[in-house]
Amino acid sequence: MIVSGGLKPTLPFLGGGMTEISRRRSWLDVGALLVLSVGLRAAYAWAVPRMLDSADAIHYLETARAFARGDFFGIDPKIPVLYPLFTAGASFIFGDLEVSGQAVSFFFSALLVVPVFFLSRELHGARVARIAGVLVALWPWLIDYSNRVATEPVAVFFWMLGALCLVRGLRRDGATWWMVGAGAALGALHLARAEGTFVLIAACGAFVIAGVGERKRTVRYFWVYALTAGMVLVAHAAYMHGLVGRWSVNYRVGFIGEQPEGSSVFAELGRTLVAMSADVPAVMLGPLLWAFFGIGIFARRAPGVPGFRGEWIVFYFALVQWLVVIPVLSPAPRYLMSAFVALSLWSARGVDAAGGALGAWHARVRHLPLAAVLLWMAAH
């Protein structure tokens, strides 16, 4: 785009569609958020002893140990390969496998502020994006997972990156390479979590949401996405064929949904539905973020921010995440971590809207809503 004042048009990067000045300002914001995110997580890692808190953590480290030895066909086929691969790679730097697994979680947890910032800026503007980045950097739950041997930080990062690429690419000025990025990011999610396969496939629905009035270009972009994602699926299926002797895009899914002895699938399904619809969301977002989420839903859109399609795509992704984890029959909050991070973008918008309303009354109280949320998080 040509900008008045002699500024040059910008390249379609993560900050595409902005002037050179605003793009630089966005990257300065991201740099500050990264410093905050890394600093808080480093302080937590120093203060809290490392531990293995789940049976899966042992399996991830066993798989990483095999990969580090060059043994790619002597592993448990139920373990998604991406996190162990990253851990095996990190082990050549850190030596100790547990430390390496934590380092991978730390890296992706700290880096999460990048797709969160740019996705929030795409949906709600730069001011809201800064608030969203601060919330993610300071969220105690996310900080805690940065110190664990767990796949969640890796999976949430690629979930948000895939959503960003789809939202940005399906704009009218979106470029084809965003679709390649979306297929690669959600392909990585498929390799990181069992439910990632279903998110990767269900992402095709985003093209239906975006296709109204833009059918020809959207269909072309769909095929770019499908080709990229298909290459990941075929390559992984071929690897599973070498591992277990049969083609499978998701070997682990057949072992999900086992109910405890003495219970029935219907009882466990009912318990999981109640927990994942009421108990878990109420606890993990908390009263303040939910209150500001409600404000954010109805807040006035900032000038110059695109229409509602991007928001509907993110809501659709959050709904898909909720639907695909229900059959797991385990109401663990970590299964909805990606959806909660996505919904917090509207909480950030609500914080900004509430602050704006207070600021119109008195400038000194504009930042009270954000301060209240940050104090609430700090108390935890």
How many individual β-strands?
Answer: 0
Which whole number gives the mean pLDDT?
87
Gyration radius, in Å: 21 Å
Broad shape: globular
Structural class label: mainly alpha
Structure report:
The chain is mainly α and 380 residues long. The protein contains 16 helices and no strands. The longest helix has 34 residues, at 265-298. The chain is globular and about 65 Å long. Residues 1-16 have low confidence and may be disordered.
Keywords, separated by commas or semicolons:
380 residues, 16 helices, mainly alpha, disordered N terminus
Short description:
Helix content is 71%, strand content 0%. It is mainly α. Helix 6 packs across helix 15, helix 8 packs antiparallel against helix 14 (309-325) and helix 9 (176-192) packs parallel to helix 12.
What layout of secondary structure does this protein have?
Elements: H1 20-47, H2 55-68, H3 82-94, H4 97-111, H5 113-124, H6 126-138, H7 140-145, H8 152-169, H9 176-192, H10 196-202, H11 204-210, H12 215-244, H13 265-298, H14 309-325, H15 337-361, H16 368-379
Helix pairs in contact: 1-4, 1-5, 1-6, 2-3, 3-4, 4-8, 5-6, 5-8, 6-15, 8-9, 8-14, 8-15, 9-10, 9-12, 11-12, 11-14, 13-15, 14-15
